[in-house]
Amino acid sequence: MTTTSLVDSLSPAEVDRLRLDFPVLGERVNGHPLVYLDSGATSQKPLSVLDAEREYYLHENAAVHRGAHTLAALATERFEDARTTVARFVGARDDEIVWTSNATEGINLVAYAMGNASLGRGGAAAARFALGEGDEIVVTEMEHHANLLPWQELAARTGATLRYIPLADDGTLRLDEAAAIIGSRTKVLAFTHVSNVLGTINPVAELVGLAHAVGALVLLDACQSAPHLSLDVVSLGVDFAVFSGHKMLAPTGIGVLYGRRELLNALPPFLTGGSMITTVTMQGAEYLPAPQRFEAGTQKVSQSIALGAAVDYLTAVGLGRIAAHEAELGRRLVEGLAAIDGVRVLGPGVGHERVGLASFDVAGIHSHDVGQFLDDRGIAVRVGHHCAQPLHRRFGVVSTTRASTYLYTTTDEVDEFLAGVAETVTFFGAHA
Amino acid sequence: MTTTSLVDSLSPAEVDRLRLDFPVLGERVNGHPLVYLDSGATSQKPLSVLDAEREYYLHENAAVHRGAHTLAALATERFEDARTTVARFVGARDDEIVWTSNATEGINLVAYAMGNASLGRGGAAAARFALGEGDEIVVTEMEHHANLLPWQELAARTGATLRYIPLADDGTLRLDEAAAIIGSRTKVLAFTHVSNVLGTINPVAELVGLAHAVGALVLLDACQSAPHLSLDVVSLGVDFAVFSGHKMLAPTGIGVLYGRRELLNALPPFLTGGSMITTVTMQGAEYLPAPQRFEAGTQKVSQSIALGAAVDYLTAVGLGRIAAHEAELGRRLVEGLAAIDGVRVLGPGVGHERVGLASFDVAGIHSHDVGQFLDDRGIAVRVGHHCAQPLHRRFGVVSTTRASTYLYTTTDEVDEFLAGVAETVTFFGAHA
Amino acid sequence: MSSTELQGLYQQVILDHARERHGFGLAAAADAQSHQLNPTCGDEITLQLHLDEVTGVITSLGWEGHGCAISQASASLLSDLVPGLPVAGLTERIDAFRVAMRSKGTIEPDEELLGDAVVLGGTSRYIARVKCAMLAWVAAEEAVLQLTER
Amino acid sequence: MSSTELQGLYQQVILDHARERHGFGLAAAADAQSHQLNPTCGDEITLQLHLDEVTGVITSLGWEGHGCAISQASASLLSDLVPGLPVAGLTERIDAFRVAMRSKGTIEPDEELLGDAVVLGGTSRYIARVKCAMLAWVAAEEAVLQLTER
Ligand SMILES: Cc1ncc(COP(=O)(O)O)c(C=O)c1O
Ligand SMILES: Cc1ncc(COP(=O)(O)O)c(C=O)c1O
Ligand code: FES
Ligand code: FES
């Protein structure tokens, strides 16, 4: 059913071995062993990632791309090596990878740079990015706020119109509607690869096809895909893609913007400051080509290096196998939840493809109460709107409870979680 | 002479003890013990800072301000405690401290938010931040590119005019000119507290007085002061201030924007995304008050916690004593350099106040050759324009060599550096 | 199977109030009305106060909204507490409730002042849930402000 | 006092060329001219090629600019190398020089092709300085492009 079913999954013994690399998974919470099912919000980190960052500070720390001393040269090399590692991971070229502090910043970068182009910055080369009245930006109804608000604001600043592709009741995108909405006025199409609430994998090729047919640019929010599936930005054909390190074994504070080379070099700068210029006078400045053009000021050096180490870890395990493991866990989650009375899973039902993530509503019990009950037995899930209020509104709920897995999640943990949900119903229902 | 001379400095024995907290200072470079005189670019980190971050990942890592599980609550508490620590450090209130990834981003945040206000975002409350033709932004000729380019770009986007306060030959600001330039058209005055090239400490009170007399906002670039002097944003009377963690013992990827509470709450958002809203529809959004209003997406959690630990370290040593120690080193640097034939120090000469930092030109020898020679004996200095091209142009040079100290710098290191500079002259001169 | 601590948070009285919400429903008009939103979860409440203009005593409190068991029980318990209180008496109770809620479990709420609402005391140990318990009380506080500013 | 490695970087020939720069000075007109900037340091060079239109041989190379000893010596050495070369011969030498420079010290520059400029070989061990050595050669490459595109 899933495209990854041809690949071997991870064996239980292997998962147990991997777990040793993540000491936090051995913590006890409220007297119970931690069952961490909130990797969709942020992942845990293996020792190799923590060590990579520490080693950097113990032996090589210096300002990069500045100064000629030995530490600075070493730091610069490590920093650029990490860029190469990440570039290979997603099938891009080195100079197509821009460091950001998270995916949110990556999307804002593109939106603001387009806003700058709309105000005439970047000259004729940037004219293709300019927006104005009559132009349209298209997103979907399932976007995370990070891939919605920057476009709302850009529309408000430029006079462009924001439109959105609605959802079918099963949580898939209405492609018929998409075909009607994406048209000659469309300048950008921004959508998520994998929904952080529904667990659906969107049909990238179809959407890219629609957008490129009308000359629109495509930005892919790969936050929930880059950590879990193998990703090739070139074969996906997107123009821009963003993701966050903290969801894929790396520390907080580091993210990635991929952009096709000629686009990045035509786009006006966003943040301005040191290390991104060739010449500055009091009157104006000349900017470096990408990626430096978008990397103003002192960079997230140790975090980039740590993201490189995280990618090495993921690559060593194998993205295909991680995806297969998580697809199994996702199936188990949905089947188990669907079997509990009063539980309604959002998005694709039993038997349909999804990643290792499920959001659900329990009739008559608020998600925060569900989460609190589970936390009492050491099970960490996320509750609330998951930064996707329009999506929740679409399904007639204010909030849901979400369980999300990663390579270190065991089937036993999923089972414990399912038992916990069943008991939640009893606990809050038993008093009826 | 310096205001800090009443405070005890650090004894050599104390500095030696402190150095044990910084293992990288024990490295050897090119066969020599490392003499790290590039703290003005980025500081080294004590073990307590590295440990704080690691402990967080080993025991508490989770997404903050989201979800109700135990790890998330712990992480949120640590994260907000760090904010309190940093707020106290600069005399601000908790909700006046916004995390950024560096000082550069902090300045861009204010400049872009003002740009957004200029486009009508933020409504009537934000009208005071709007700029247009006829309005003026004032900076100085000594600014780091980080405090120049964002304003140049803002001027270009809004039609406002950028003006600058020139420098006297001794590297001080021409206050007579400042008084003539700052006037009723001035909307913002942005200047650096301490010059990263000259080592001068600018007269904040006078400049704030001039700006506030005409109703202009003041942004202080505290990058080179927050790590080295005790800073009180309220008594300085500035409206905004920015600084970077990596220059003050913290990791890369974390910085701070201070803003007066009522200003931050009136300023339109800059980056938009998750965790900064109350309500989102497909048509628009309501934004949270500061600081969350400016903290879109997953934050730099472990880096904030590490910055809190860095501030604890600095506070334990004492900023007054650090400043006194560095003032001594600064004196030694300038006196030593001035005594070497062919060396010209930029900025205040012997006998004038400066921090522990000096940039200089060696007649007939390019700064990169000076730096290379010093590096050969393990001495790390910075060479180039130090992201201050207009300043260098003002003094008729393309680049300089810069030595900069910190609390862990010894007088022996300064002496070794001075001997190295003298030998540089001989080496490149001896072949004449 | 659930820990005694959790049983402390979700006492029987709380679960009962969450299910059968006292004071639920809004009138067409009121002497004061406040709407509050809990930004961390998106839940909200609208709360009304009705005053006896002559005696200065609050006659009733009505509310509508959605939220977790804690927030719903808290609003319900508050609506039981208020009728018959002078405005200043309500303010005193709001203050006392806030102090207990912010105490991280160190201060037991005062039963004299807060009546059945003391069952919410356990919430103060769960920092992330304090806003839930406070939601109705913050709305009441804003409504009181409207009454006193008139 | 300075290490042998450093002596390898700053060989006597290099220091001499840095001080007495061959080919320094620009003509009012040239057959090709390129301006290059080293963004890491802000140094720059303007370089001109003069061609014998009949034989297709480069008759001379002139340049002006500022930079470190490596960059100045490199331009000076290049201007010694070029006169008498056909355009294709210059391209061949630029390519050979680049390969050596990018080799991190693993490839010795070919003396047959590069003459005295082989003294710059030590630079390839100092990644941060490779751009210094390359600056004039990149300018020459761009100038050659102009010649061949005519
Ligand atoms: C005075 C001054 N302002 C701004 C900056 C920029 O800081 P960052 O690169 O950390 O954003 C620096 C340091 O590079 C500086 O010294
Ligand atoms: C689909 C999706 N997009 C965007 C984001 C935002 O990522 P970040 O908060 O790391 O910027 C997230 C995660 O929160 C996400 O799941
Ligand atoms: S979770 Fe929303 S009020 Fe409690
Ligand atoms: S340092 Fe500028 S060319 Fe060498």
UniProtKB/TrEMBL annotation, chains A, B:
Keywords: Pyridoxal phosphate, Transferase. It catalyses: (sulfur carrier)-H + L-cysteine = (sulfur carrier)-SH + L-alanine. Its cofactor is pyridoxal 5'-phosphate. One of its GO terms (biological process) is cysteine metabolic process. It is an enzyme of class 2 (transferase). InterPro entries: Aminotrans_V_dom (IPR000192), Aminotrans_V_PyrdxlP_BS (IPR020578), Cys_dSase_SufS (IPR010970), PyrdxlP-dep_Trfase (IPR015424), PyrdxlP-dep_Trfase_major (IPR015421), PyrdxlP-dep_Trfase_small (IPR015422). It comes from the Bacteria. Its EC number is 2.8.1.7. Residues 35-417 form the Aminotransferase class V domain. CDD domains: SufS_like (cd06453). GO terms for molecular function: cysteine desulfurase activity; pyridoxal phosphate binding. NCBIfam families: sufS. Catalyzes the removal of elemental sulfur and selenium atoms from L-cysteine, L-cystine, L-selenocysteine, and L-selenocystine to produce L-alanine. Belongs to the class-V pyridoxal-phosphate-dependent aminotransferase family. Csd subfamily. This is Cysteine desulfurase. The lineage of its organism: Bacteria, Bacillati, Actinomycetota, Actinomycetes, Micrococcales.
UniProtKB/TrEMBL annotation, chains C, D:
One of its GO terms (molecular function) is iron ion binding. It comes from the Bacteria. InterPro entries: NIF_FeS_clus_asmbl_NifU_N. GO terms for biological process: iron-sulfur cluster assembly. Pfam families: NifU_N. Residues 10-132 form the NIF system FeS cluster assembly NifU N-terminal domain. This is SUF system NifU family Fe-S cluster assembly protein. It comes from Subtercola vilae. The lineage of its organism: Bacteria, Bacillati, Actinomycetota, Actinomycetes, Micrococcales.
